[in-house]
UniProtKB/TrEMBL annotation:
This is Response regulator. InterPro entries: Bact_response_regulator (IPR050595), CheY-like_superfamily (IPR011006), Sig_transdc_resp-reg_receiver (IPR001789). The keyword Phosphoprotein applies. Keywords: Phosphoprotein. The lineage of its organism: Bacteria, Pseudomonadati, Pseudomonadota, Gammaproteobacteria, Alteromonadales.
Length: 413
């Protein structure tokens, strides 16, 4: 209602109009129409707080006028008090059915009219206050529901992030949440060797935007606002929101509480992924080293075994030849005995060396089997860490004063 309540009188009796004018002029703004059609037009144009409506009028009756007013959106909630010389129950029931809130019988006293209007305006004011309270309570409830919904999104993201096997997969999960909130964002991950950048549609990110995000991150502030943009920084992750609702402090405040919950979890996951990738790389390198050393040992062992066989064949050939030639050389018995003995001693020594080499060959084979076992265990460990259904996007790298070194202060550019 306005500061001075407005009363519209719709009555073809000029005397009634004057009575109403004189009775209410000091406390109300009063204007009048003398037929239903003009009354409806005036009600739509002026939106009075109360309508005093005569029942018996030429053309449209008061009941018809009231029904028409209740069909119009702008006048449907305006209280209507019927004025009539009829006081029977049927007239009152018809007035109630048409949408009236009270019934005043002509002729009436000014004091009676004032009393009814005072009661009615008090009721209207109370209803307005109650409506405002309901509206405030509804807004509070919706705000709480929104906050609860956003918290649910954060929890779902944190749960799903456990299964992310690459920075790209983690970024996709994060940006899916911000897209659902209608936020346009760029995400930066800070690795040990490089920084990688991501957005929801995987479009190219300009070098200038990458430089701006990196520079703001290195500024050392947790929150940075510039224009409609806000950047939130953690040690290993930074989020640039390009359409932060700065004109809506309530929503802005919710996002300032909500987004760090996701970013803190993301920061820990980035570290976990880097550690996991480093361990996978180390395991792969170690397995390759085991395989290379084993192959070398196998080759050395095979070469040693071949050399042993060659020496045995050589000695056997020499012995056969000497056994055939010595009797024909005309040597004395002692000379022949000396040569034979010397040859036997040499062959015996060679056999000992060959036996020793055989032990070395067995040792090589044992070490080779051990390396094979270790390589298989490393591969088994690698298979348990890297799922079989891991696709290329999950293994490729992107391009891209609190405990983590960022202050909680908010900077405004």
């Amino acid at each position: 209602m306005t500061d001075i309540p407005r009363i519209l009188t719709i009555d073809d009796d000029s005397v009634v109009q004057k009575v109403v004018q004189q009775a209410l002029n000091d406390d109300y703004e009063v204007f009048a129409e003398n037929n239903g059609k003009d009354g409806i037009r005036s009600a739509i144009e002026n939106t009075p707080d109360v309508i005093l409506l005569d029942v018996e009028m030429p053309g449209m009756t008061g009941y018809d006028v009231c029904k028409q007013l209740k069909l119009e959106e702008s006048t449907a909630n305006i209280p209507v008090i019927f004025l009539s010389s009829l006081s029977d129950m049927r007239s009152r029931v018809l007035g109630f059915a048409a949408g009236g809130i009270d019934f005043l019988t002509k002729p009436f006293e000014s004091a009676e009219l004032k009393t009814k209007l005072n009661i009615l305006t008090t009721f209207i004011e109370s209803k307005k206050e109650l409506t405002e309270e309901v509206s405030r309570a509804t807004n509070t409830a919706f705000t709480a529901m929104k906050g609860s919904s956003e918290l649910g999104l954060a929890i779902q993201f944190i749960e799903s992030s456990y299964g992310a096997r690459s920075l790209q997969s983690l970024a996709d999960k994060f940006l899916s949440v911000t897209s659902n909130l209608g936020l346009h964002c760029t995400l930066m991950f800070i690795g040990r060797k490089e920084r990688s950048f991501y957005n929801a549609d995987r479009a190219a990110i300009s070098p200038l935007e990458q430089e701006v995000i990196s520079t703001i991150h290195d500024n050392g502030k947790r929150f940075i606002d510039f224009g409609p943009r806000t950047q939130i920084n953690y040690r290993r992750v930074a989020l640039l929101v390009k359409n932060m609702p700065l004109d809506d402090p309530e929503t802005y405040g919710r996002y300032k509480d909500f987004l760090p919950t996701m970013l803190g979890s993301t920061d820990a996951k980035v570290q976990s992924l880097e550690t996991e990738q480093a361990l996978i790389g180390q395991t792969q390198e170690l397995g390759a080293s085991f395989t290379a050393v084993r192959s070398t040992l196998v080759a050395v062992g095979e070469s040693l075994e071949k050399n042993q066989n060659d020496i045995v064949e050589l000695l056997q050939s020499m012995l056969s030849e000497l056994e055939e030639r010595i009797p024909k050389m005309g040597l004395e018995d002692d000379q022949e005995a000396y040569i034979v003995k010397r040859i036997d001693n040499t062959i015996t020594s060679a056999e000992k060396i060959i036996d020793s080499s055989a032990n070395t060959s067995h040792a090589f084979k044992s070490v080779s089997r051990l390396l094979q076992h270790l390589a298989e265990k490393q591969q088994s460990l690698l298979d348990s860490v890297v799922p079989e259904d891991l696709d290329e996007s999950d293994t490729e790298n992107g391009n891209g004063n609190t405990d983590d070194g960022f202050s909680g202060e908010i900077d405004l550019f």
